[in-house]
């Protein structure tokens, strides 16, 4: 019953997390587009009010005319929309999903004893520390170098080094699947923290200054914009890390930390293309196709690098690739989780009927995707996977 309820919790939280992430990323992408597409206001009255940019757009049968004030409008409207629930709900639903999926059964899903043989509690504590420590170091880098000459480049380089170091540590301390998600969660936590600790508090200070009739400090707008820009470059790397858990060839590779780093770098480069594309259309910068080409080239090189090579065991015909031989493998490698009254996900592999019913799933999970046994906890060999493959391709007979 616990496994069944956890599956439902996982499904509903994943659904909620995707919905809120779409809302947050969508609004983030829109405002990056808006900032990059603004042109000087044509109306003298708007310029006199402090408008520094405007945009005309058509969508859904209507025309829209958003304008931007350099620091603050001369008077606040009665209804001011704030963008923060998207970020907070995305983080809360994501953390709840990570808790249900990995922390709840940390000994199985978070710990790989071939890497670190530590207690589940210790693994959970270290995993959570990734979220906190990365934010602290990132924030310190921004405050120390963000306002210097060439500060953006310095911050970008240092944060990139920090991400690489975190990815290396996570992939050497935790099970590969969990490590990829943990790095994504770490960066996503920093994105939400940017909103919670800097962007929204800065905006509230600006609003209070206007309400008191004081001139707002422009530093709040500058800092909020800086952290928002950082968030937009984090977005595609985070999305890749979150999607990666469905593809075992990524997180089971011998150098999976480098795979993660390369794909996140490709995502950031491609995001740079889309950010600068808006400015190019207005003649503000050269065509940014080079960034997209770099990102695509990195992805293509990674695909070539990860191309699987058939093992010698898979190439060698197996004389007795029949059910009795497969049953021995299942008994040694799979019965621990898929037998008896407590069989995981109600998948029984300890009877001929159960094996016949789940033959396709066995082949997909053990031979094609190689995701089972989970984290290869029972140390199934390539030869045993090949045996299952040959049995399935011969008709998956159980009698």
From TrEMBL:
Annotated Urate oxidase N-terminal domain residues: 3-305
Keyword Transmembrane helix: yes
Transmembrane domains' residue ranges: 12-33, 83-106, 118-141, 153-175, 181-200, 257-276, 288-307
Keyword Iron found: no
SUPFAM superfamilies on file: Cytochrome c
Alphabetically ordered keywords of this record: Membrane, Transmembrane, Transmembrane helix
UniProt cross-references to InterPro entries, sorted A to Z: Cyt_c-like_dom_sf (IPR036909), Urate_ox_N (IPR010389)
Name of the protein described by the UniProt record: Urate hydroxylase PuuD
Organism: Ramlibacter ginsenosidimutans
